[in-house]
Write a structure and sequence with these properties.
Layout lengths: L5 H13 L5 H12 L5 H14 L2 E8 L7 E7 L1 H18 L3 H5 L2
Antiparallel strand pairs: 1-2
Amino acid sequence: MKTLTRKDEMMLLAVLRLGEEAALVALRELLNQHTGKPWSVGNVFVSLEKLEKLGYIDSSLGAPSARRGGRAVKFYTVNRVGLRALKEAREMQDSLWEGLYDVIFNA
């Protein structure tokens, strides 16, 4: 399995956090809020497309919305492969962090 980049990891966590509301604009807002950095719609879209192509997330279309001119909103969910990738990333980070907390935070 491909090692997740930090950006991939943040995107997967954002999709999980939003659950059924995980659509492009909501994901962008959540990432802006939690990272304190601006995420463009294009940046989020490209990341979602990449994760879907890698098989970590699935997408589905919601009902057409009058607010969007009749266009359906695309929603994303993390699948089993994505969950396994997150678990492996966390385990790898934990093993690298082991024993370093005091070195870093008590310096």
